[in-house]
């Protein structure tokens, strides 16, 4: 095989600075054991030295092992695949053919970013996080590798294996040209977004810390003391005028609100800073992040479906989010959010750029069956009804005073869940048009899923015993990188949708999908 | 339901699979294979029950033979009744461009896989399957749901024939 680029066909190591990143991470790991050892051995004299010694040992061992694994990890950019060999005692070699690489993404966390390094991730669509990643390369090497893999993959895709070999143009590959921006979020938008990302998670963390630190600073005692102080001055507090009490309660609420908003704000700003979604020649390119910068390219033909979501409050103000379901999806992560916080018309632009369309006003919506509504009301409330019966009976013997109120509360919950099931049925609907299938659900904050009919892989009509008795079914559609199911539709409709969808699927072969 | 008039028992030439049509039954040996498998699974339980019965003899309030009787009764249900019902519940239809697989006694599942979406195909035979000359045909798709659709209990020859037929539809294999 001739060489395509100077960096080809020989085993290479990742950037030497990676060792430094590993060592720094090791230092972070060493802090806690060192502190623990210091306190564990008692603060008298030797404790601090033992702690320091243990910390140092961990840093040295960590740094050394990072260095050895760096020495032992090599990657080869071959003619047909990328190979990574690693392992100190046991050797592992993984080979990924170019045509299986769905995409290459670059990620920069804070420390690597300071050192000018990137993590290069090769997404193969393999399940369970079994993807290939190289940590870390220099920024230039990362960008070059990404370009190279793309060219090689295109060559493999087009089944012209010799296209980039010995091609001098390949060596002078140009960086990705800037595309046409289709969605961006400035600081103003981020600020609004931050307001809606109100989060009380920080209080949970603080509470956890307080518990954890209990032994050290005796917060529990402090609280007891404060409690004692208040109970001693109970009359004084009660004597304070009503308005002061109300004011202090309001101040407390305000503090909670400010802290919660600040948490959301910080999270939004660090994650979404400089959010830019562009339409490039190859597809969508998304860049975002303040400390951890990510740069992800999503080829347009790999977008399988869209998910439009929202939340309770932001929905009232007309804000939505848009996510791609893509073949190269890292399951579970919010990796393919392309518009986290946008107006519907902005979403419409992105959706149309991706080759989809939003349902128009005269779309024919179908609801779930009424039998399904009744059954889900019964099933949802059954738990509380049984709980009420059991608790009521037991309490009637043990504590008769409590039997009625408890049973009433549980019955109330049962009624509530039945009501929720009834209400949510109103919002469960689906629609099928010439090219797409759409499903919508959600009571207070509707979310929709839109999939292209041709990009589905199978169709299943599933029925449990109750569903068979009552004549409805769940339609499960095979979607690459995601789930698409429509529950509780009448059997006849389920079969009709399946038949129509299959007509479309069968008309195109999988290998033609790429160009579709 | 409404188009019972259009029922055809021979779906092969048509493109679409007919939801109302009779399913093609699996190989009769499949029922026997299921029974043998159930029997093999039941043996340890029956032995366990016998041992328990022997150990508890004289000390148990139950009359002699009750534990063994119950276990044998359950085993008989699993050996005689369930394979027959499972066999009756399963079936498939194959047309020019898609395969329909139906299974499940209580939880029915009715899956259609178009050949154009098949990634790769397996024909598997366990030792028992080989003895009965049957095989499991598995179609793998790229979808998360129904990533692999199994059709057990086909005659081995039929399974390989079906594989070849489906493979002919896949223009670029394993992509």
Question: What's the quick description here?
Answer:
The complex is a heterodimer of chains A (516) and B (175). Chain A contains 18 helices and 20 strands. Chain A has 516 residues and is of the alpha+beta class.
Question: Any overview of this molecule?
Answer:
The complex is a heterodimer of chains A (516) and B (175). Chain A is globular. Chain A folds into 5 domains: 17-175, no CATH class; 201-271, no CATH class; 276-353, no CATH class; 370-425; 428-513, PH-domain like (Roll), CATH 2.30.29. Chain A is built from 18 helices and 20 strands. Chain A has 516 residues and is an alpha+beta fold. In chain A, helix 1 (17-40) runs antiparallel to helix 2 (47-72) and helix 14 (370-398) runs antiparallel to helix 15. Chain A has helices at 17-40, 47-72, 110-114, 139-157, 168-171, 187-196, 201-212, 214-217, 219-232, 234-239, 242-272, 312-316, 344-353, 370-398, 400-425, 465-470, 491-507, 510-513; strands at 74-77, 81-86, 92-97, 103-108, 117-123, 132-138, 180-184, 276-279, 283-288, 293-299, 303-309, 320-326, 337-342, 365-367, 429-432, 436-441, 447-452, 456-463, 472-479, 482-490. In chain A, the strands form 4 sheets. In chain A, strands 6-5-4-10-9-8-7 form a 7-stranded antiparallel sheet, with helices on both faces. In chain A, strands 13-12-11-17-16-15-14 form a 7-stranded antiparallel sheet, covered by helices on one side. With 175 residues, chain B is of the alpha+beta class. Chain B folds into 2 domains: 4-24 and 92-169, PH-domain like, CATH 2.30.29; 29-86. Chain B has 4 helices and 6 strands. Chain B has helices at residues 28-56, 66-89, 127-132, 156-169, and strands spanning 91-94, 98-103, 108-114, 118-124, 134-141, 148-155. A 3-stranded antiparallel sheet of chain B has the order 1-2-3. A 3-stranded antiparallel sheet of chain B has the order 4-5-6. In chain B, helix 1 (28-56) packs antiparallel against helix 2 (66-89). Chain B is elongated and about 70 Å long.
